[in-house]
Amino acid sequence: MKKILLPFLIFLLFSGFAFGHGDDEPAEESSSTALSKIELNNEQQKILHIRTKIIELSEVHSSIDANGTIQELPELKFQVNAPLPGRVASINVQLGSLVKKGQILAVLNSQEATQLASTGLSDQATYRSQLTQSQANLDLEKKRYEREKALYEHKINSQKDLEASENSLKNAQASLRAAQQNLQVATNSTQTRLSQIGANHGGQISLKAPQSGQISVLNLTIGQTVDSGQILFEGVDLSRVWASGAVFEKDISKVKLGQKVKVIDEASNKAYIGRIVFVSPIIDPMQRSFSVKVLLDNSQMTLKSGQFVRILIEVDGQTEKAILLEKDSLVERNGENFVYVRSGKYLAPVKVELSKHKHQDLVEIELGLAIGDEVVIEGAYLLPAKSKPVEDEHAEEKSGSQTPLWVWFVGGGILILAAFFAGRATFKKKEEIL
């Protein structure tokens, strides 16, 4: 009996100990219990700059919400190529530099440019020599004509001799004009060709920006040898950009050219106003959507190519009612949004669902709040960290329901002793019987 009872009592002791303290381990908090209701007096609310307002419906324009990206206008992109082979002598800009139209970006030393200038000068020298010769010939023919004319007037020469001299003079004049034109063409041709490639007569080529913008690609280094036609710079003017997005098939009937659009950069919470300049006539068969483009003024250069934005297309003449709150009202926990609502003397966290519709400075609440609720709209983010949560009303009851540790030790000791003496008494009775 002793051998059976004693192990059983020890097992009962440790089982009770484990069971009695199993509730001591903290349970993992869920997102909905991460925030507690809070009691604050008026002085505490002033210190924390807590401000509340009563929820009411606001009138908002009905809009189509679409995701979009910022794109550069194709006509505002530019490239700068090497017009002739050469070696990079200097680079005057860096990657990302803002440049003006006509600004010198880099200088090349080119033997081909030197040869072109030399050939042009040689051609000009040839035509200049011809011009000099033609001028001398004209001067000679003028003198001959004057002599023949004098002789004719004195009845010494015939009219035929005078006419022959006059024809020679006209030919000399035509030759002079041709020589002048050839020289001018040679000079202009050489100068035009040098100007087209940005070269001077010393063989240096100045690479200039064809338009204003920002350097986005730089493909050269000092001393590098480059080939004719090689792309050395790329740039883009982002003073005007597109916001490109997609409108689903069910909403496309509400979209028109020239329609007012609000484009929101969610990173900076800045809104831009633009107009629709393109609506694709062809549907995307996979997404069942139509591409739209919105032209935006970006003279401050705050929008970047490839940046994600929200496109809100206002539907003309359509408004709806919604609950709008300041963004500072939200407290985020584990990917969920909460607001603090006054409940008696407490501020209680309430989980809310946000609408997909976006607004510049406000958020639209879809679920969780009702008209007349008093909501914290300023200072809400301070409440979880700087306020003292209200004590659990059932804490004492829960505490009382747990058996203290010392009770289990004392009770277990008594049971063990009782079992021990009971066993000894049984053993003595057996000996007396025997």
SSE diagram, text form:
Elements: H1 2-20, E1 38-39, H2 42-47, E2 51-54, E3 58-72, E4 77-81, E5 86-91, E6 98-99, E7 104-109, H3 111-153, H4 159-197, E8 204-208, E9 213-218, E10 225-226, E11 231-236, E12 240-248, E13 260-265, E14 270-279, E15 289-297, E16 308-326, E17 331-333, E18 336-343, E19 346-358, E20 362-367, E21 374-378, H5 383-386, H6 395-400, H7 405-433
Antiparallel strand pairs: 1-19, 2-21, 3-12, 3-16, 4-11, 5-7, 5-10, 6-9, 7-8, 9-11, 12-15, 13-14, 13-16, 14-15, 16-20, 17-18, 18-19, 19-20
Helix pairs in contact: 1-7, 3-4
Summarize the structure in words.
- The chain is of the alpha+beta class and 434 residues long.
- The chain folds into five domains: 2-21 and 402-429; 32-60 and 322-386, conserved putative lor/sdh protein from methanococcus maripaludis s2 fold, CATH 2.40.420.20; 64-73 and 237-318, Elongation Factor Tu (Ef-tu), domain 3, CATH 2.40.30.170; 77-107 and 206-234, OB fold (Dihydrolipoamide Acetyltransferase, E2P) (Beta Barrel), CATH 2.40.50.100; 111-202.
- The protein is 34% helix and 34% strand.
- It contains seven helices and 21 strands.
- Strand 19 (346-358) and strand 20 (362-367) form a beta hairpin.
- The chain is elongated and about 160 Å long.
